[in-house]
Design brief:
InterPro entries: HTH_LacI, Lambda_DNA-bd_dom_sf, Peripla_BP/Lac1_sug-bd_dom, Peripla_BP_I. With about 350 residues, the chain is of the alpha/beta class. It has helices at about 30-35, 40-45, 55-70, 75-80, 100-110, 130-140, 155-165, 185-200, 215-230, 250-260, 275-285, 320-335; strands at about 85-90, 120-125, 145-150, 170, 180-185, 205-210, 235, 265-270, 295-300, 315, 345.
Length: about 350
Amino acid sequence: MTNRNENGGRGSPPAERGTYLRDDAKPTLRTVAELTGLAVTTVSRALADAPQIALETRLRVRRVAEEIGYFPDRAAQRLRTGRTNVISLVLDPHEEILGYATSMINGLTEALRGTTYHLVITPHFSDTPAQDPVRHIMRNRMADGIAFTRTEPSDERVKLLLERDFPFICHGRTELATPHPFVDFDNYGFAYKAARKLIAGGSKKLCIILPPERFTFAHHMRHGFMKAVREEGMAFDIPHEVTLDSKSDDIRRVIDQRLSQPDRPDGFICGGEVSALAVMAAAHDRGLDLCRDVRLVAKQTSGLFDQIRPRTETIYEDLAEAGALMGRLLLKRIAERPPVSELQVLQTI
């Protein structure tokens, strides 16, 4: 008689895994079942992370599946459950923030670790409508949830996804009346605090390089900056020729022109490390001392400015944490459909 354990097992696992696998054989659920000594249905439920299966058993099944290279048949899985077990991250290639994509991906991947979900990157390029990749994913049922970045005040992607009741999370907020899931950084607080730092350090005229006007966080940064300069009656300059998305050479040329003027700015706020490096290059080329003649506060998202001398004031935005939060909230939205208020996080300084 075959003895079964409490999770549907069929005795001890075989001693030799090679008995069941040829070099050219594709591992199946039955392969995992034979190697673990469990029933096929138990293996299937364990890989689906069913809470009825003991955690120790789930971990053992997952470990064996990984060791032999077993992957579920996604097509069959989708037909059976209606789920793809895929999260799609829609990314715009840009150099505004160093390590943005890598940090976001690392965070999301960490959030999905140990689940049945996998991350797929879907690129979006600025010369095509932002909603195109989102429509493509939904139309072809390529993912169970979508994450995206660079949110706009009246974002068409958010409108579309809310209308279709499709799970999503975005990095950044909109100004829409309908609440939606998001993870955002306090860019208002960043700009305000940066300006106050420069004012306290003796700067007399402040200059801020903003993101493109179409993004919500550009408005947040502008409002935080303007609050600080108005509180003190400070002179200020907001260059309209360049944004955080501009090429670094273009930013350097514009700042160089500003520094050539008699009433030049002496305090700069940069929302990204690339723009900060361009400002530093312009000041150096003008023979200005970066501690005495010109001061700078930059948003730091990588370890780059830890190695810059002279040391520069920075305010840190944790993009990996943002990615992890986005992943966890999106999984929660898919599984539980909680109130939207539970799917909104603002990272504070």
